[in-house]
Amino acid sequence: MISLAAFDMAGTTINDGGAVYRALENAVAETGVPVKPADLQTWMGVEKREAITALIELGGGVADEDLVGATFARFRALLDEYYTAEPPTPIDGVPEAIAELQAAGIKVALTTGFSRDVAESILTGLGWTVGPAAPSDDAPAGTVRVDALSCGDDVAAGRPAPFMIHRVMEATGVANVADVLVAGDTAVDVRSGLNSGAAISVGVLSGKLDRASLEAEGPTAVLDSVAAIPAYLGV
C-alpha cells in the first residue's frame, strides 16, 4: 500500500508555461555559450546551479564559481520576471488528485530542483500550504495542502540522486521505500525515483518530454498527468 506520493513541481503539478526552461536557457546563453535543446532537456529537473554548470561546460565555457553564481542570479531574476508576467497555475486535475490521495490516507509531498525560497514563493503565489493537517482544518474550499516539501538546496545532491525523496520520507514519517510513489515529468525525475528504491516511479506527460523519452528511462508507468494517479492506484 502506498503511503506517500512525492511529486515534482514545475511541469508535474504546476504549469509555469515553460518559464523555467526559458529562464535557464536565456541565463546561460547570456554568458556567451550556445545551449542545445537536447542538453537543456537533459538537465531539466536538476538542482539549478548544477544544471547551469553543466550547460556552460557543454557550450564550451568555463564554469568557475563566480560565473555560475552570476548566472544563477540572472536565472532567478529572469524567472521572477517571467512568473510576474505569467503566474504559474496548478495543472488541471492536480489539486483534486492531491485531495483524493490525502483522503485515502496517502501523504503528498513536493520535490523540486528550485531553491527553497523560490519554491516557497511559487507555492505562496498559488495559495498552497505545506505541513500536516490541522486538527480542525478550516481552510477555504479548494485550498491545496501538501505534507512536505524538499528543495535542491536542502540536500547534498539533487536529482538524479534520491535524497529529496528520502528527505520527504523523513518529514512525513514514512520509513519504507516500498510504500512510496514518485512522479515527475523529466528523465531525472524518473531516475531519482528509481534510485530511491521507491515502489513506483511514474513519468508524466504534462511537461516537455514525450512518452518514448520517458519510457526509455524505465519507469513503472507513464501517465498523462498526476491527475491520473488516484485511478492508477485505485483509490
List the helices and strands and how they pair.
Layout: E1 4-8, E2 14-15, H1 19-29, H2 37-43, H3 48-58, H4 65-85, E3 89-90, H5 94-103, E4 107-112, H6 116-126, E5 129-130, E6 145-146, E7 148-151, H7 163-172, E8 180-184, H8 187-196, E9 200-204, H9 211-215, E10 221-223, H10 229-233
Parallel strand pairs: 1-4, 1-8, 4-7, 5-6, 8-9, 9-10
Antiparallel strand pairs: 2-3
Helix pairs in contact: 1-4, 3-4
Give descriptors for this structure.
single chain; about 240 residues; alpha/beta; six-stranded parallel sheet
Structure description:
The protein is globular. The protein has 10 helices and 10 strands. The termini are close together. The model has no long low-confidence stretch (mean pLDDT 93). It has helices at residues 19-29, 37-43, 48-58, 65-85, 94-103, 116-126, 163-172, 187-196, 211-215, 229-233, and strands spanning 4-8, 14-15, 89-90, 107-112, 129-130, 145-146, 148-151, 180-184, 200-204, 221-223. The chain has 235 residues and is an alpha/beta fold.
Summarize the structure.
By secondary structure, this protein is an alpha/beta fold.
Ends distance = 11 Å
Number of helices: 10
Helix content: 40-55%
Mean of all residue-level pLDDT scores = 93
Task: Compute the CA-based radius of gyration.
Answer: 17 Å
Query: Order of strands side by side in the largest beta sheet?
Result: 7-4-1-8-9-10
Number of strands: 10
What characteristic shape results from the CA principal axes?
A: globular
